[in-house]
Design goal:
This protein is α/β, with parallel strands linked by helices. It is built from 16 helices and 9 strands. It starts with a helix and ends in a 6-residue tail after the last helix. The structure holds coproporphyrinogen III.
């Protein structure tokens, strides 16, 4: 266990030079590379399940700052990772806008679908304040308890990905409902995206003011869109969010995670203005290397199932990844979130493997 208590009283906002994660995001090659894991707080940890039971529902946990701060810190205490990610969910934004989100046990999220312009009346940008304030309270509690060398990541879902849940009313394999609305009525769908751009800016701005050191924009379903729609619904809204956040907080780095973007990832990186690119498991190491050679930070991209398997398979791939990304700004992560079946010991092994990298080789 890593003791956070000792540093908590003197904790301060980290400077990039003292937090390896922020150095990498600033474009420096750090060795060994910083490591954190998407969904690092979650059901694979017994201490998470214990707090989750105490909280009741999943969203109740997200809206209880003391408990949400506790679970945010759990993977830092257990594994000594280089960054903490705020414990919350991308669906807090529709919930705050008035489209109530429910998480049925073992079933994933459920919302009353929004399918047409008339349904947008149910969303109210003016009433997000109370909900966002609770999440921001978690951010400030976590920041005061983290040592300065551990960065705190705030996040939101990208407008396109959040819209896919709002329109379908649940997670879907092909995001068909949102794609169909966008094809049939682009002007109407754009109004939903505009609402999400505004809400996301307010939400991320609040997280930075509360103490987030960096931000990540999760576009889990970016890969569902062909080129012109990728431009309209992934690149353009993300660019608007990044531009406004940069205007308000020029020194806060932003990572974009356009999952499944494939060959469009390089364009996404340039056109949105993000500082770092989160790569999914399908991105070849040579492509990650080529992107990082331009001086931007690249993050990724181990298969979450390698972390379940552990052993030789995990070690071989970690070594190949570290070798491919040597000498460029790189953050080691998974290509998607940790799955609940992951043995926590494998995470500890992964961290030890990465930290065993010597600065020279
Ligand atoms: O990374 C972290 O540890 C921070 C917390 C975090 C969660 N969700 C916690 C969570 C983050 C960053 C997310 C992002 C998120 N949420 C995304 C984007 C990234 C991705 O995974 O694709 C998406 C699409 C969601 C929406 C969502 N939340 C779904 C589809 C589900 C149900 C599926 C599941 O795993 O149960 C959730 C629930 C959720 N979000 C859990 C956690 C820990 C599990 C809830 C529980 O404890 O029962």
């Amino acid at each position: 266990m890593h003791d956070l208590a000792q540093t908590s009283k003197t904790a301060s906002k980290p400077a990039p030079s003292e937090a390896p994660f922020l150095s990498a995001l600033a474009g420096t090659a750090v060795s060994p590379p910083p490591i954190w894991l998407m969904r690092q707080a979650g059901r694979y940890l017994p201490e998470y399940r214990a707090v989750r039971e105490k909280a009741g529902g999943f969203l109740d946990l997200c809206y209880a700052p003391a408990l949400a701060a506790e679970v945010t810190l759990q993977p830092i205490q257990r594994f000594g990772l280089d960054a903490a990610i705020l414990f919350s969910d991308i669906l807090v934004v529709p919930d705050a806008l008035g489209q109530r989100v429910r998480f049925a046990e073992g079933e994933g999220p459920r919302l009353d679908p929004i399918r047409a312009v008339a349904d947008l009346d149910r969303l109210d940008l003016e009433r997000t304040g109370d909900t966002f304030a609770r999440v921001c309270e978690t951010v400030s509690r976590v920041r005061t308890q983290l040592p300065a060398h551990v960065a705190l990541i705030g996040f939101c879902g990208a407008p396109w990905t959040v819209a896919t849940y709002m329109v379908a009313g649940r997670g879907s394999a092909d995001q068909a409902e949102a794609r169909l609305w966008a094809y049939r009525d682009p002007a109407g769908f754009a109004r939903l995206i505009d609402i999400l751009v505004e809400a996301s800016i307010t939400y991320l701005d609040g997280q930075v003011q509360a103490g987030a050191d960096a931000l990540q924009i999760f576009d889990t379903w970016a890969g569902a869109l062909p080129e012109p729609e990728f431009e309209s619904w992934v690149v353009a809204p993300t660019h608007r969010i990044v531009t406004e956040l940069k205007r308000r907080h020029p020194h806060v780095p932003i990572i974009g995670f356009p999952r499944g973007a494939g060959a469009k990832a390089a364009h996404y990186l340039e056109a949105t203005g993000v500082n770092g690119l989160g790569c999914d498991t399908g991105v070849p190491l040579e492509q990650m290397r080529a992107l990082a050679d331009r001086g931007v930070a690249v993050q990724g991209n181990l298969d979450p199932l390698l972390l379940v398997a552990g052993g030789e398979a995990m070690r071989t791939r970690v070594e190949a990844t570290l070798a491919a990304m040597r000498g460029v700004p790189f953050i080691l992560n998974l290509g998607h979130g940790i799955v609940p079946e992951t043995p926590p010991e494998h995470v500890a092994e992964l961290v030890a493997l990465v930290r065993a990298t010597t600065p020279s080789g």
